[in-house]
Amino acid sequence: MSIDAATAHAIELRDVRKSFGKSEIIRGATLAVPAGERHAVIGPNGAGKSTLFNLISGRFGVSSGDILLDGRSTVGLAPYEINRLGLSRSFQITNIFHRLSVFENIRCAVLWPLGYKYSFWHSLAKLRDARLRTEEILELIGLKRRRDEAAGMLTYAEQRALEIGVTVAGGASVILLDEPTAGMSRSESDHAVDLIRRVTVGKTLIMVEHDMSVVFGLADRISVLVYGEIIATDLPSAIRSNRRVQEAYLGSHAADAADAAASQVRA
Amino acid sequence: MAASHRTLRFAPLDLGQWAAWSAFVIALIVAPLVFHSSLALTVLTQMGTIIIVCLSYNMLLGQAGMLSFGHAVYVGLGAFIAIHTMNAVTHGAFWMPTALIPLVGGFAGAFFAVLFGYVTTKKSGTTFAMITLGIGELVASSSLMLPEFFGGEAGITTDRVIGKPVFGITFGPQIQVYYLIAVWCLVCTAAMYAYTRTPLGRMANAVRDNPERAEFVGYNTQRVRYLVVIIAGFFAGIAGGLAAINFEIVSSENVSTVRSGAYLLFTFLGGVGFFFGPIIGAVIFVLSFVMLSEITKAWLLYLGIFFLLMVMYAPGGIASLIMINLRVAKYGKFGRLWTPYLAVIVAGIPLFLGIAAMIEMIYHYQLDSANGTVAPLFGLAVDTATPTPWIVAVVLVAIGCVLMRHASRFFKRHWDAAQAEIQSAIERSHA
Amino acid sequence: MERALEFFVISLLNGVSYGLLLFMLSSGLTLIFSMMGVLNFAHASFYMMGAYVAYQISVWVGFWPALLIAPLVVGAAGALFERYALRRVHRFGHVPELLVTFGLSYCISEFVQLIWGRAPVDYRIPAVLDGPLFTVYSSAFPTYRVFMMGVAVLMLIAVWLLFTRTRVGLVIQGALSHPEMVEALGHDVPKVFMMVFGGGCALAGLAGVIGGNAFVTEPGMALTVGSIIFVVVVVGGMGSLAGAFVASLLIGIVQTFAIALDYSFVTLFARAGVVLTPDSFGYPFLKLTIAQVAPILPYLLLVLILIFRPRGLLGKRED
Description:
The complex is a heterotrimer of chains A (267), B (431) and C (319). Chain A has 267 residues and is an alpha/beta fold. Chain A has helices spanning 49-57, 79-84, 102-111, 128-141, 156-169, 186-199, 212-218, 236-240, 243-266; strands at residues 11-20, 23-33, 38-42, 64-69, 72-73, 87-89, 174-178, 204-208, 221-226, 229-234.
């Protein structure tokens, strides 16, 4: 239950652990993201970033620890329950409804939030609010021209944009984006960053990313996940010069070199 | 009314929505006037019922991605409840017009779907398929244990002429039964079509395409699947009620796994990707059972082979074959396909004749040998005891195989070329 | 007391032999499913094919050649099907794969009827194995049942050794979880799939050879056994061999015991001095004896498992 709604963070992780069999993937992750913040999670490959996302979104259950959404524990809840509480996520591998059109994809994402639930007595064509909201999102993600195309037929970048659209269409207040610019060219990435900035206005964003320019361009704060633990959470500039982070990414020799180069520049 | 947004890629369907529905209604009304033999009437009546069954089955298979081996349970139990109701009405227990009996069947189907669906929808995918098989066998095996309800080996009979005629209609004559079924068929088809355009109908599609994503947009996929089973069970039960009225007998065969398999087979043959596919499947269903079975004793084997070939080469069924050819025609590329199609047909003839000859001869050898070894084959009298016809058959098959290899390559070349041209035309229009 | 013990022991032995036969079938099904993700709807049809082919060979030559040849024939048929039909359909997804095996089961059933007719065929137990091996009190236990159990156990040990001790087995185990990796290492994974599918079918065929003459050999045998092995696989837990083993024995023993028990609620109430008549409430259900209910017991077990333990007896949690 909500301890203190006024100061509850949008997302809070308290010593979250996750083991698959004998291997402990997440070993005590602790994090607090205030509402409205754009937060990036970075870390070397295999650190457990996707697993962390899967835990927060309810795809997997935690082995121990607590996850709170707006002060309310979501441990043990099914993904759809967590989604209904206001958290939405995108996937690393594009996860859309490939046989439905672009328009239908977005519309599916707005049906529950608009309260239509399992209705089989409403005619979709007559749902004005669903249609307007869908049009809004289509305009936002720039896929209006492709609205009637089957989602499976889009280009990779278009599918990624659709993925983001489906994620935010429902009006969730906490958005998780899993490597949104993976596999994109420089210009496609820039477009995507612009899109992400527009769709997350007023929302809490948590993003896993490898592309450092994207991270430093978007994030208010950055957390670094290494071997299942969050070793640092700070402003981008502080992270950049954080010794432990440099070691984790570059190894201690290279971190020494980076230090030396940085101090030379300052000198 | 807000403009509805079409998601269909093929224009012919887009333009012809009204034309298609009108044609359907007209066909229903006019069919028995055109085909007025009593055999034709039997066939048309059964088609009306099976159309509802196959459409309801496709709510599960094509629209929600749920492969069920136990659909006959809902059709059959609907039929049983309907027939018991009719008997109760005949004995004066309460009043119910015959025309509303299918609704009783529908609610029965929905009731059992609530009951069994709770268990079956706990899993999805292939596990769901196996569970439906188990539940189907459960009900089918129970049929012998409860003769009071299932009527044992003989089944339950009834008389559909109940009480006084209303506006002169007793439902005694077959033509009256036909129009009753035609009305229900139209109503149910329209309802099932409307369902595809509702939130639940659309989310069922979403669950089919990507159940995980559906969860992450706020839907409990298990609940969606459960509701789809219930609604499909409702329509299946209506069809069962109509069957009870039509045949005036229901037996354990109506809930058998063999029946479920047949519904699956013919719905798939018709095509699961388009709304009208199961209608085609239902038509083929009845024609095969009533007429193909008269032509050859091996008709089930032919069907099985045809089904296998469909799964391997055209998994979208006959409906998809129609639609992709219509698409080619829409782009004006059909002209180049006449010759390749002809080539495939010409190559197919000896192949088909050879295989059919062998099958028919084996059948005759096996089952009719008491009547002598001479079998009627395509109008010829063939002595199956001599080696000649067998050698001819084998040669035909060999020739057919060789010809088919060449013809199919020839066809594929032209087909791929046509598709490429269409693709570039589409890209040009997008640029 | 002696009679009860006698009944118990005989029924237990019969139940175990039937359960082992079920395991021979469900293990092949589980292996194919675990490795290829394909649920082989035609698995019981290969069982039936094994019985019929063995029948034919035993009519021409004898039982012992049939024991060797029939499984090979069935295995070859399975491998051919995998190579030319199943492989084609693989890229369409799991539902078309299941449908193509469904179509195959249909065709095999019709084909068998085409060649051997609709009536059961007289597939006999060889004379040397016919007759009792030992007696428990006054009941004789047939030699052939012991033979069946022996063949089943030997076969399972052989398969286990193949998997764990040979190079081929290691490759199969690898392909089970990481087919792409195994292929990258240079192994011909499609060929491995073909061999596993063929092997699974050969196993089913062997079960048909030894089961067809102990039980009945007729065109309907595939359907009855088929639905039961699906129940076994779901109850045991999808993909779990140990689960299939436990579930097979459980169902085999429970069904064998049930068929012999003539008690119903009516007899139970009668023992307590309460006489029920056809007018009593629920009489149609209460008068059913356990023996009459026996055919649906596996399916009732399925329903119970799905309600109370959906992942199966020994299944893994993540479905």
